[in-house]
Amino acid sequence: MSAVAVLRLPLAVDLSGFVKLLQRMQVPHRVSEEAGEQVLWVPDSISEDVRSLYERFPTGDPDQQLDIPNTRAAVRRPGFVEQLRHSPVTALILLLSLIIGGVTMLGDNLDVIRWLTFLEFRIAGEYIQFTPLADSLEAGQWWRLVTPMLIHFGILHLAMNGMWYWELGRRIEMRQGSINLLGLTLLFSLVSNYAQYLFSGPTLFGGLSGVLYGLLGHCWIYQILSPNPAYRLPRGVLVMMLVWLLLCMSGLISMIGFGEIANAAHVGGLLVGCFTGLLGGLFSRRKLAV
């Protein structure tokens, strides 16, 4: 991976504290002297993160800097429109979920839902008759492998999944790019949908939750292997999501009125997300070491 000059400072500036901070964070870097300046070099992929870090903590002491107000060093938070512009795939998936939610009347319009479910079905009196998956695939309906992620049953279901996809999707899109986020989203949807189908058989299921657990597992393992501010989740988020998964698997959540939970989709998404995070983290660490 190519290195770029992220800082060029006079020799009189004491950069030792900030270098120690980079060392504590295990950020690959080197300092050189050129034309009477000290130059800090870091991998291109994390240059903006390092520059932002220096603006906040030039002495390398986060605790000290946080106690001293400094408006010049403050980093402007991007506005919502700017975040949308830098997160096109995240915004696209959420927009599609909203549109599908409206068209399907959040699960009530079965005539539309039947085109997006993992298994095609038809209503026969009071019963639902499902078409075998192989028949749908032979008919060219390959989209069914991933489109269940766009179906939501109720406003709370859509709102919670949308909020978490916005939070996790933006992180991956910022760190690894839009194409990678799209690929991971489709992969996690495919694996989680198929896992749920294998576990529960012909049933109606949908939602982004399997994808969300995939994104969570990906960020979790990736951050362990190749630390980066973009993947540093708020404290307690990982624990909360894993506890929620265990509660769902226990059957308690369904008993108190939240309906049937696609536990196999959650577990399948989490496992494949941990696997992609392992591969991505190892690859990133290897590139940074070059």
TrEMBL record:
InterPro entries: NRho, NRho_sf, Peptidase_S54_rhomboid_dom, Rhomboid-like_sf
Transmembrane domains' residue ranges: 89-107, 142-166, 178-199, 205-225, 237-258, 264-283
Superkingdom of the source species: Bacteria
Residue span, Rhomboid protease N-terminal domain: 1-66
Keyword Nucleus: no
A Pfam family matched in the record: NRho
Protein name: Rhomboid protease GlpG
